[in-house]
């Protein structure tokens, strides 16, 4: 069973997600939190496999809560809940350590699949919206000084750099394999090596890193 904590200050949202996820045979909702501060405490007490995290909440917002949760447990998996009018916060949440994001109007199947993907250790990067979100709100990174960590790009091989760029564009392993005309297993190996060399925890951080390192041009 995948144990999930739902964090949202709106009771209807919490109850709705709880009902949808509770109907899944492989998912169990183990708790709810009404703000970020409560979420941090609940994560420490319940150790859920996945945290569904709203962004705008009282006392402690979802971005800061995500940062605290990930700082306390590097293996914590946070799935951010957002709406299109809150896109500006998604990039910040990903940088804070979130494993991905879901739109609040996601279907029951999309919600359950998102939880499963993140629980399995993958990053939830929906190709249809991820590129637009990251490119739009990476603009601050495009004009800001390059973080020292981006110098590690030089440790990557030419093929690994190519794979990193495609990750940032929201492509799955299979799509990258098709694009490069190689086996999916080969791409998985490249991804693993990229994460190790750059000291990143998942594909989401890799995507953000690619924009910060100017490997992908904003707006493209």
From TrEMBL:
Gene3D superfamilies in UniProt: 3.40.50.2300
A biological process from GO: phosphorelay signal transduction system
Ranges where the Response regulatory domain occurs: 3-119
Keyword Heme: no
A single MF term (Gene Ontology): DNA binding
Chain coiled-coil ranges: none
PTM annotation (4-aspartylphosphate): residues: 54
Keyword field: DNA-binding, Phosphoprotein, Transcription, Transcription regulation
Name of this protein: DNA-binding response regulator
Species annotation: Streptomyces filamentosus
Highest classification ranks of the organism: Bacteria, Bacillati, Actinomycetota, Actinomycetes, Kitasatosporales
